[in-house]
Amino acid sequence: MLVDLFPSYLLLGLVLGLLLTGIRLVIGPGVADRFVALDMMTVLAIGITALTTLVTGRKEFLDIGLGLAVTGFIATVALAVFLERKERDQ
């Protein structure tokens, strides 16, 4: 019985983490802190898609997780370039 509820507990933990990270995204003191929170939300969303893949057995959710990972990586690189240029201009 506990084994049947385990994915539900994992999903609840991931959603709770997503909620807390969203709060950090809103009240973060700086741009870098907010972007770290956005990266964390991306990681949690990938975890949710992986868990959904395990529970449902449908491999299409892995494609969604891969798309999220690539988008998160490109966004991180873009922000790093933006912050470096901003710092260089000052």
Automatic annotation (TrEMBL):
GO MF annotation, one: sodium:proton antiporter activity
UniProt topology in membrane: Multi-pass membrane protein
Pfam families: MrpF_PhaF
Domain of life where this protein originates: Bacteria
Subcellular location: Cell membrane
InterPro entries per the UniProt record, alphabetical: MrpF/PhaF-like
Keyword annotations of the record: Cell membrane, Membrane, Transmembrane, Transmembrane helix, Transport
GO cellular component: plasma membrane
Major location (coarse): membrane
UniProt family annotation: Belongs to the CPA3 antiporters (TC 2.A.63) subunit F family.
Name of protein: Multiple resistance and pH regulation protein F
Organism field: Glycocaulis alkaliphilus
